[in-house]
Amino acid sequence: MRERTNLEWCVGLTSAQADAAIADLRLILLRGLRYALANHGVTEPDLEDFVQDALLKVLCELASFRGEARFTTWAQKVAVRVALTELRRRRWRDISLQDLLAGHEESDFTPALLTDQSPDPGRVAVRGMMMDTIQRIIAEDLTDRQRQAMLAVMQGGMPLQEVAVRMGSNRNALYKLLHDARKRLQKRMLYEGMSSDDLLSMFNES
Amino acid sequence: MKRAILKPGTIRKMLQMIAATRPVEIGCDECFEQLDRFAELELAGKNATEAMPLVQEHLERCSDCREEFELLLSMMKAVTDNDSCG
Ligand SMILES: [Zn+2]
């Protein structure tokens, strides 16, 4: 396969004889995805599908390629997004937000449960108090959506992409929602006299 | 008022996230726009973090984007390795 410059790729893919450039790009993406997804339990037909979808996307979005990276890197980035979007969707297909969060919320007060291994009863007491404060401000300061998203991502381990779909949003907007939630918690914790660093040092050691 | 029951591990994670929270952070879209350039710098052994600190910070906070970055690096290495083998 001959090396192409960014310009040659863009011209090659849009010319009347685009077949050669498309075939070469297809090979590059297939080889890369096959290697990168080796341990992800994907089949050869899966890989073919991912590459096909990625090629369509690349051709569709060619005008947005600004040449800040190599063309092949940009195309690989598109392929990664296509493949992981599908793999996440499959992996989480049968899990609703309600299922994921069931047992993580209760309607009335529950003290923070901590199986604290520290031999220092003073530290155990302070940590218990801090955990309780954090749970309280999460309940008081966050909106339902912020709390639900934060729990699904941080406790349920669900990808942002999948939480976003279930909340009728998109990944970028969900990140911003979580960022706002973190800023709110940070502010409130300072107001309660606990800097983030204080809290971290209290929880980082056993 | 609903009260979340958080596991100690979740609280620790949250505290780390809260401690690392900055007033301005880029979102997933902006991160994706710059991810190819960032990955090239990284693979070339250049200081990608210094050149694009907001991307680096986003990758530390967002597991979706981090997963995509790692897979992209792996893809790029596959192509480079194959090329160097002829
Ligand atoms: Zn992200």
Structure, described:
The complex is a heterodimer of chains A (206) and B (86). Chain A has 206 residues and is mainly alpha-helical. Chain A folds into two domains: 87 residues, RNA polymerase sigma factor, region 2, helix turn helix motif (Rna Polymerase Sigma Factor, Chain: A); 107 residues, no CATH class. Helix content of chain A is 68%, strand content 1%. Chain A is built from ten helices and one strand, in the order αααααβααααα. In chain A, helix 3 packs across helix 4 and helix 8 packs across helix 9. The radius of gyration of chain A is 24 Å and the shape is elongated. About 4% of the residues of chain A have low confidence. With 86 residues, chain B is mainly α. Chain B has a domain of 59 residues. Chain B is built from five helices and one strand; from the N terminus they run βααααα. In chain B, helix 2 packs across helix 4 and helix 4 crosses helix 5. Chain B is elongated. Chains A and B meet through helix 2, helix 4, strand 1, helix 6 and helix 7 of A and strand 1, helix 1, helix 2 and helix 5 of B. Strand 1 of chain A pairs antiparallel with strand 1 of chain B, so a sheet runs across the interface. Bound molecules: zinc ion (ZN). The site of zinc ion has 6 residues of chain B, from helix 2 and helix 5.
How many separate domains of chain A? Answer: 2
Distance between the termini of chain A: 56 Å
Query: Topology as H/E string of chain A?
Result: HHHHHEHHHHH
Decide which structural class fits the backbone of chain A. Answer: mainly alpha
Beta percentage of chain B is under 5%
- One letter per element, helices H and strands E, the order of chain B comes to EHHHHH
Strand content of chain A: under 5%
Largest sheet of chain A: none
Chain pair sharing the greatest interface: A-B, 69 and 46 residues
Give the low-pLDDT segments of chain A.
107-114
Principal-axis shape of chain A: elongated
